[in-house]
């Protein structure tokens, strides 16, 4: 009954009663009238109550009918077999799916006899109070019945109590699951999984399918089907578990991956259609141990039902993962020194750079290089070289004990990362410590070797926009001073441009050698006593595409910093030898031709052999070749230089000390080294005209050289006066524009012929 109507009736009765009371008080003497009115009032109340009850019943009935109708609609709409019934077994409403299962398709709904049908469907003869209670209590219990046409049906019935009507009759809803249908679905899923695995083209996968776990899920459901192998592994008896149940097996750190995949699979399973996806995670087995699994899966549409299912194979890849750890070790550890390698340094450095980029933290990045390490390799063998690298890395690690990170980034290059403390001398001090440790390794097979290392350093993040650049800049700093042993240099911005220019030049030089852009000019050397030509100096030139010639001062220093110089020397040597052979054939007098060599050339262990082979091939007497070396070269590695020079000397080749007087003028070297010629630098010549002290020095040098059986030649002689002075000082030979500058092979040939014919005396 509507609330408003109830209130209206209450109001009428209340007013009526109050009015009646006032009326009765007013007419208290007139009892007949009072009786009459009260009787009328009671009659009206009875009639109204009756009407009220009738109305309420009608309303309730309507309500029940509409609830029933809704229930019937619901039951009929269910895709699962279902029925609506009451505990009095007065009626039963079976949906189409159940009627089909029960093979009652042809029996109309109204003809169904509840008293007979309901016990039959529950596999019972009758339904007493006890049986009813059991049915309502039991969820997911198996029941069997035989359909009208005799088909055995195995069912799981779920019964819930819905409502009790005005007569005390309870309504029930029972929903069933046809076990045969579930079995068919599982077979389908199994077949699908096998097909999926085979379709992947994974031979092993399809062959070993029964050996691997399979997980299958259906769109819109949080249930996962487990294969027998999976159940064994996770310790389940049931074939279907929920997403949350499986989640409990996932390793904590892998939950993120699991949740992400499960969520996107749930929300967008179609995205996984026909494309293999992978998820790697650790699962806890029933033995309480975590193992690594690789789940390869994809979604597909079941042909018959059009239902989207996702499924795939779960492979135990614990062993592969263990191998990964080993691979990682191999990938990030240097095999010789067992410290980190370049890959690890790059990874560490990059991470660190990103971490400190927006902070005020700084780190030093240091790169070291063992000076002329290749000589150790060449002369002591690779095993000894490796031994030195090992000891050196240990020395670095010990130095870094205070903190920091070190790695061998290439051959004899090590890189270090150190926290900057605000003290700018820190990198220098650390490098010096490392240098001291390295020097201390010069014992045993390394005895008498000067073991030094050079280093360059830069600051991170200040000196580069990423770690790679900072490291490169530390390497720039290192190479900027590469000619000086034991150098320590900090990266500067100016260095950057220089290095870029030089590396560009280096590349061009390599091409120049290949493309025959190098050529030789020859400068005559004159005997000061008779003005006759006694020899030539081969001087290299680089012919540019436009025909201009680049002087060696522009490119030799750059070439000397890298191995390009050895290619240039090879060219000069070959070219000189073949030119000499040509002149020999032409009948020109046999002159001593000198070539210039750099320290890098001298570090080639096979240098004497290489030179001898070329001389032999061109049939040139070794005494006709002279090699000019600068003083600094001799200073760099005295032991090796002496050894190489001795070999060259023993073969008959002449050796000249070039540019004597520049750098460290030490006459002691002509005592130690087997030079045959001393070339006085043009600075002496320039100053001796006006400076008697210089004249005195030149005289002394010449005298000492003579005492050691070493001839002397002066470079850069431009005037007659200079020549005269030199003669007075006892100098043997002269070279300079006064006689002739560097000239082409043809020009020098003419020069030689003319000089021979004219017998000039200067
Ligand atoms: P250097 O070996 O001392 O060569 C002598 C340099 O002095 C030559 O310069 C020559 O042209 C220059 N010169 C000769 N006479 C005079 C003179 O009267 N006055 C003046 N002011 N200069 C004179 P160049 O050819 O430019 O060579 C420069 C340097 O480049 C050479 O000095 C040498 O150290 C180096 N060089 C030249 N060719 C080669 C080479 O094939 N290999 C190597 N490693 N270095 C080379
Ligand atoms: Mg020279
Ligand atoms: Mg010189």
Tally of strands: 26
- The count of helical stretches stands at 28
Pick out the low-confidence regions: 196-211
Structural class: alpha/beta
Largest sheet properties: 8 strands, mixed, barrel
Average pLDDT: 83
| Main sheet: strand order | 18-19-21-22-23-24-25-26
Rg over C-alpha atoms, rounded to the nearest angstrom: 53 Å
What ions, cofactors and ligands are bound? ligand C2E, magnesium ion
Helicity level, as a percent range? Answer: 40-55%
Comma- or semicolon-separated keywords:
single chain; alpha/beta; binds magnesium ion; six-stranded antiparallel β-sheet; eight-stranded mixed barrel; 762 residues; 48% helix; binds ligand C2E
Account of the protein in words:
This protein has 762 residues and is an alpha/beta fold. 48% of the residues lie in helices and 21% in strands. The chain is built from 28 helices and 26 strands. Helix 1 (3-26) runs antiparallel to helix 2 and helix 14 (382-399) packs across helix 15. The protein is elongated, with a radius of gyration of 53 Å. The protein binds ligand C2E and magnesium ion (2 copies). Residues 658-659, 679, 715 line the site of one magnesium ion.
